[in-house]
Amino acid sequence: MNSETAISLGGYFVLMLGIGLYAWRKSTSNVSEFMLGGRNLPPAVAALSAGASDMSGWMLMGLPGAVYLAGFSAVWIAVGLTIGAWANYRLVAPRLRAYTEIADDAVTIPDYLEKRFGDRNRNLRVIASLVIVVFFTLYTSAGLVAGGKLFEASFGYDYRFGLILTASVVVLYTLFGGFLAVSLTDFVQGCIMFIALVLVPIVAIAAVGGWSDTQAAATSIDPDYFDWFAGVSTLGIISSLAWGLGYFGQPHIIVRFMAVRSVKDMPATRRIGMSWMIVTVIGAVLCGIGGLAYVTQNSIALADPETIFIVLSQTLFHPYIAGFLLAAILAAIMSTISSQLLVSSSSLTEDFYKTFYRNSASQTELVMVGRVATLAVAIVAVFLALDRSSSILSLVGNAWAGFGAAFGPVILLSLHWRRMTRQGALAGIIGGASTVLVWLFVPFTIYGQAPSDAIYEIIPGFIVSAILAVAVSHFGKPAPATLEKNFSAMLAQQ
Fold first, then answer.
1. Number of other CB atoms surrounding residue 445 within 10 Å
2. Mean local confidence (pLDDT), 240-261
3. What's the CA gap between 92 and 217, in Å, rounded?
4. What is the rounded CA–CA span in Å between residue 148 and residue 140?
5. Spatial distance between the Cα atoms of 263 and 96, rounded to a whole number of angstroms
6. CA separation for the pair 104, 275 (Å, rounded)
7. Mean pLDDT, to the nearest integer, of 18-24?
8. 3-389 falls under which CATH superfamily?
9. How far apart, in whole angstroms, are the C-alpha atoms of residue 448 and residue 320?
């Protein structure tokens, strides 16, 4: 490893751990502070935290790699995600922030669902928690795969060393600092990602000779490179756009909405979050395009397209700046891993330990259990990530679909439809998650293709979940109107 690059990365690790130490001293005295930061996040921190925890290694490795290989036909995913993020800010954010506070200060999604529907049997909490733990363990492993690949491609280190180093730093600051540490580190990481995704594509395209030379180099490899519809079917476009449906059900993203200071801050949060997302998504796409042109022009052998951002960082910049840019990849990876670890540990602590084992546990005990749960989930995720052949985009896509299908329709309906029932919510979660698992693992074909190759699994999962939630709700009794009245009064005051 170049010494200057090592210094930059070392400084980044120290900064992250320092923020974790600050947050540990500032706000981990009780469960609400450890898991939601005391519901006191400013708009900028909440917005960049949501964005950074959302995009992960997909933003700097998965998306540039997909565009590098397939051209503009791979951009449909980015379009779908941008539309979905905007809809999430409009349809979910303000209502979820208000509803979770008046629902006896619910701090997790299963906690909110139980209180929203008055589920005394607690079946809803258990099923929702199981879905979160299972899919987040898979999701976390995707981030660790990206960390391992980063250190392997950048410095020639063993993949497993990079994986364990990434996991160790994330676990340390999440373990001690809780939600505030995760949110503050996400804010810093979001800023680093923003700068990197503006800087790298500009320099790469300039190095090739400008936009016209970049276009010429890309089309020399594939004449249809800039054709949005080349080599992609109508179902393929629909599948890519459907990634946007996943936003409504991602616990690690929507929990940021629960932690914003006030509903009044939501418009500012939305404007900051969407501005950040649009710029960074465009930057990631341009990294793939500029990367292909640069590699082609300079006859560089690229074994793994998902490492194109790494190659550009190392070849175009001074080692100190390269270290900063590689820190951007770590920032994307670590911000998502930390968010997922915290949501998983929150669910294990609040929805299993406190609910079924130690209802009288003290706040200190629950915070300690949360830390132990964080470590346990991380260990399992490391084990799953040992297979370095795993595709980052594939792993993320599977987990994203699982959450989007299981929780998306249920969250939307619970916030906008008063007649929804506990049984409807339960049917929606089970039906959505089961459909995704069937689509991924049951051996059948659609027009000679594996189901997930024919159409993205979130589409059938989301449809099944929505139909079951509505249909079953029509045969049950809605939850008491008390929460609805308090909710309406709170929104009116805001």
1. 10
2. 86
3. 43
4. 13
5. 9
6. 33
7. 65
8. Sodium/glucose cotransporter (1.20.1730.10)
9. 51
